[in-house]
Amino acid sequence: MARTEFSRATKRAALERSGHRCEAEGTRYGFEPGQRCNCHLSLGVQFDHNVPDQLGGDNSLSNCMAICIQCHKYKTRNDVRQIRKSDRQRDRNSGVIRPAGKLKGAPFPKSAKPERDPNKGLPPLPPRKLYEERP
Ligand SMILES: [Zn+2]
Question: Any idea where the HNH domain is (predicted)?
Answer without folding.
Answer: 35-77
